[in-house]
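Entry type: protein chain
Record version: 2
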Amino acid sequence: MASPLAFTGSPLDRADNVRADPEALAGMMSWRARLLMLDGLMPSIGDDGRLTWGSLADAPENAELVFLGLDEGKPCFAAVPDRGDAKPRMANPQLWNLMQVLEPGDLATYGGARSIVDWHARHRHCANCGGTTHIAKGGWQRDCKSCGTQHFPRTDPVTIMLVEHDDRLLLGRGLGWPERVYSALAGFVEPGESIEEGVAREVLEETGVAVRDVSYIASQPWPFPSQLMIGCHSHADNDAITLDTSELADARWFTRAEIAAVMAGDTDAPINTPLRQAIASHLLKWWLEK
């Protein structure tokens, strides 16, 4: 890829050895420790355009603290908010602005912190017995004291795929999307599926197009709330589309010249340029350059 994918490249050392050692972790919680300043799940941005850090004294009273890792030896933490984020990312334009203005390392640090503290805020009760859970392993685990079940932060795998046929790409427009907004098809990998099987099933379900020769291109964490976007490429043997209108508003094949015009920001292009921070944009660049 020509440039780093958004939410990748955090400068923090996750220091798993510290997470697993209660004494070492306790020793990190001193005046030297830094606290990522958050307003709920939104970060505080300084006058320099960077993330704002405070001390542990700035944490809300009785807040649970997650150990994010070490930054040049300095322990970094984030406080779990009172509640998680139930809103879809599209409902918060501030998030889109953040992706435009934060430098890559800060965006990656914030993305990781957002995912983990949001998970804690939404998992305060045990899925096994309903008992209260408590933070453990520096925030990378929750334990139920009632039944002993251990709970771990989840990451949901999502395939996002280019489908190619006769030097054209199949792109779709989701329900409720603006008219000119199209992107690569995407869907969650289901239990019991490989990535390749997930790609084939999602494309077939949404468009009726059968694909083969699935290959991996790149991945991107997407902290809304905690997805891992798995970018793939595949080939189709036919171009007949049978649209699933419960999933998509439209799907079309686009020529290489049309994709090139889109990525160049040509005002005469048939669709809008995708968000540059999203992996879909990187996949389209990869395809044009291959």
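Comment: The first strand starts at residue 34 and ends at 36.
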